[in-house]
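Hey, can you fold this one?
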Amino acid sequence: MKSRIHPVSRPVVFRDRAAGTAFLTRSTADSDRRTTWEDSRSYPVIDVETSSASHPFYTGAQQVRDTAGRIERFNRRYGETPSKGA
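Sure. Predicted structure:
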């Protein structure tokens, strides 16, 4: 592996502003702001608006669309028409 061509990977704290949670992971992102983590060490912190803790897909708070109503409405508008050749 060539030296000095890959970005430096370091531990970084990502803090989800919407859910109020934080997680420590490795990243090439860096920040001037720092926070103290549970292990009493100081890490760069990056605030994000959405993470798996607050995104509706992961939390199950996703809205269910009324697909049955849409299908019925489509069938009323464009329902079966008699074929001309039969």
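The first strand starts at residue 10 and ends at 16. Let me know if you want another pass with a different chain boundary.
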